[in-house]
Specification:
mainly alpha, 80% helix
Length: 83
């Protein structure tokens, strides 16, 4: 999905949630670039912990924000595909 589609798909989220999502996406990309073997639970825990510290929120809230943003992007993508 292009950067423009991501931006448009997240426009209805509060700004801080968008910032958390972008931060976490970057951390996931850094893990991938470093050649980390994909371990969903381990990577999620690591990224949620970093977001928790960076935004002074709980790890659970970081995970919830990321999940809401991903859900919003899927809905946006499905809507765009149906047009």
């Amino acid at each position: 999905m292009s950067d423009a589609n991501v931006k448009n798909g997240l426009e209805s989220l509060p700004e801080v949630e968008r910032e958390v999502y972008y931060f976490m996406e970057k951390e996931y990309e850094l893990l991938e670039q470093a050649g980390e073997k994909y371990d969903e639970a381990e990577n999620d825990t690591y990224v949620e912990k970093k977001a928790s510290k960076a935004f002074d929120i709980s790890e659970e809230e970081a995970g919830n924000i990321y999940a809401r943003a991903e859900s919003q992007l899927r809905r946006h993508h499905l809507y765009q595909a149906s047009e």
